Amino acid sequence: GEYWRCTAIEPHTRLRVGRGIGQTETSAAKVLWQTVKQRQAHTTAPPPVLSDGWGGHREALVEAYGQVPAYRGRGRPCTRKQPADNWHYTQMVKQRSATGHLVGVKVQVIYGDNTTLERTGERTVYVERTHLTSRHMNSRLVRKTLGYSKQVTMLKAACLWEDVVYNLTRYVKTLRIRSPLPDRRWLHRSPAMAAELTDHL
Question: From the centroid of its chain, how far is CA 141?
Fold first, then answer.
């Protein structure tokens, strides 16, 4: 069957920090946020998140980071996890015409306050670009192809390998910085170099 993918990237460094694969968008989002949490980067609260209108991130964030409120001794105790006040999550919902053309974009804050839009931004261009890059790098993700994975374990392995190659071995042109050396104009950097996880390709 068809499997859904969710990818999280850090917008300033373009680093892919996690990926989830599942039979539904919500299950893929749950795998993604459990993975991000397990990597010890954000253990108590999610990072500021911007997504499109799909994907089930609202439920996935609560399942991964939510807490059951403390019982205050009145009424029935709450047993469901709840989002915290310091979360920042924004959805960018694209509105399309009957022919599929983009006619508008509605930005709505799901969790957060009046600083949320500043923290999350209002564009999903970087993750859309990384999805295009994925289809160029990984033949299993190309649409309408015979190169698809018949087993989900092989799809996960191919996607993991692709993320390693993307983060560590390829430079991204928009991450380059001016070189202090007289014989070079630019220093090219990979996402991992921009995130200061390594100093070389």
Answer: 17
C-alpha to C-alpha distances, 71 to 7, 85, 162, 196, nearest whole angstrom: 36, 18, 46, 43
* Under 8 Å between Cβ of 46 and 63: no
Position 135 scores a pLDDT of: 87
Q: Using alpha carbons, list the distances in angstroms from residue 10 to 16, 47, 111, 120, 132.
A: 7, 9, 19, 11, 16
CB atoms within 10 A of CB 175: 18
Whole-angstrom distance, CA of residue 158 vs CA of residue 165:
11
CA distance 105 to 92: 7
pLDDT (0 to 100) of residue 123: 80
Positive or negative: CA dihedral 133, 4, 59, 80: negative
Task: Output the six-digit token pair for 64.
Answer: 């991964």
Element (H or E) spanning 152, and its range? helix 152-168
* Amino acid, single-letter form, for residue 144: K
Distance CA 13, CA 185 (A): 20
Q: What is the pLDDT of residues 83-130, one digit of tens each?
A: 998 999 999 888 889 888 888 888 889 999 889 888 888 788 888 888
Phi, psi of 101 (to 5 degrees): -80, 145
Residue 186 pLDDT: 92
User: Distance (Å, rounded) from C-alpha 48 to C-alpha 70?
Assistant: 25
